[in-house]
Design brief:
Blueprint: H1 8-18, H2 21-28, H3 35-45, E1 47-49, E2 64-66, E3 69-71, E4 75-77, H4 91-100, E5 104-107, H5 115-121, E6 126-131, H6 137-150, E7 155-158, H7 168-173, E8 188-189, E9 194-195, H8 206-215, E10 220-225, H9 228-236, E11 241-244, H10 258-269, E12 275-278, H11 284-292, E13 297-300, H12 302-333, E14 347-349
Parallel strand pairs: 4-13, 5-6, 6-7, 7-10, 10-11, 11-12, 12-13
Antiparallel strand pairs: 1-14, 2-3, 8-9
Length: 350
């Protein structure tokens, strides 16, 4: 990657030129008519910033601490599957870039590199582990134990997937499995010697959250919370953080944009736990808007994949660096000394 790419959208164009078209569509597409995919980005365009002036704020501080994990910026790497489709080094390259950026990478259960190998490839990286609870709780526990043993600092439990999303582009392309020699390495079953499929099950309930809470001492983050009533229930079940997400529009089409859902979830928990969000973030100004509306930090998925496909580890590093620089620049122009100074009055809906 030699060309200067000044914006996230440039990385997407570069990634599209390099990826197998079916693989690009897998990463880019959403469920149904992709109403939610489009809404995630469009919602940020409807939010305007109201900067303060003459504040003498100096260079802004943008570091955050979440569940005991320190990040140099409020942008985390969201859990996304199949990184080796974008680059041969896959999740290892992504983890090294995240470590260099001093931020948290959430490793997907559907990673194409085993969590132990991700850790080994990026010493010093701060990793959390994303989990789909499996109906076989013994197998679920085995995955959790692997994540713990590898040194992951939190468990991010995806709760918006009682069934798989229906993505028309994947059907058109006939994309329903990984290429030969590539597997979801965190799903290897030592007892069977095989790689199990991920089972999306409608029987998963709050009881399973309770089972996980008893199973591990790791902080539990619930990813995919969109309804305030569920946010309040989550507090009753002892979760450590909530993660507002509509799965990047890849599950149920027609769900509102994540940033539009964010304020109600923040209000529902009343500061009791951190609230993260993802969906549609393509600029540092988007990060600032989300944090002004109450997010403790944000996570980015597709932009990281575009960076990985465009330039491997270097591409991911550039994407994360670009977002960091844009966040600092936006805070400076808003007259703020820190992300902690962000508040809803700095955002206006238009």
């Amino acid at each position: 990657m030699t060309a200067v790419l000044p914006a996230i959208r440039d990385f997407e164009a570069a990634a599209r030129a390099r990826l197998d078209p079916a693989h690009y569509d897998y990463f880019a597409c959403g469920a149904g008519d992709e109403v939610t995919v489009k809404a995630n980005e469009a919602a940020f365009a409807r939010l305007a910033l109201l900067p303060r002036v003459l504040r003498g704020a100096g260079s802004p501080r943008i570091g955050v601490t979440l569940l005991g994990s320190r990040a140099a910026m409020p942008v985390l790497v969201a859990p996304t599957a199949f990184h080796r489709l974008a680059d041969p080094e896959g999740e290892k390259a992504t983890a090294r870039a995240a470590a260099a950026a001093e931020t948290v990478m959430i490793v997907s259960m559907a990673a194409t590199v085993a969590v132990e190998d991700v850790v080994a490839a990026a010493p010093g990286a701060t990793l959390w582990f994303q989990l789909y609870v499996q109906p076989d709780m013994a197998f679920t526990e085995a995955i959790v134990r692997r994540a713990e043993a590898a040194g992951c600092a939190a468990l991010v439990v995806t709760v918006d997937s009682p069934a798989r999303g229906r993505r028309d582009q994947d059907v058109r392309n006939g994309f329903d499995d990984l290429p030969e020699g590539m597997r979801c390495e965190n799903l290897r079953d030592d007892d069977r010697g095989t790689v199990r499929p991920i089972v999306m099950s409608p029987v998963i309930s709050w009881e399973h959250v309770d089972l996980l809470r008893r199973m591990t001492r790791l902080p539990i983050v619930l990813k995919g919370v969109t309804h305030p009533a569920d946010a309040r229930l989550a507090l009753d079940h002892g979760v450590s953080a909530l993660y507002v997400s509509n799965h990047g529009g890849r599950q149920l089409d027609g769900v509102p944009a994540s940033v539009d859902l964010l304020p109600e979830i923040v209000a529902a928990v009343g500061g009791a736990v951190p609230v993260l969000m993802d969906g549609g973030i393509r600029r540092g100004t988007d990060v600032v808007k989300a944090m002004a509306l109450g997010a403790s930090a944000v996570a980015v998925g597709r932009p990281v994949i575009w960076g990985l496909a465009a330039g491997g580890e270097c591409g991911v590093a550039r994407v994360l660096g670009l977002l960091r620089d844009e966040v600092e620049h936006a805070l400076t122009l808003c007259g703020l000394a820190s992300t902690h100074d962000l508040e809803p009055g700095l955002v206006r809906r238009c």
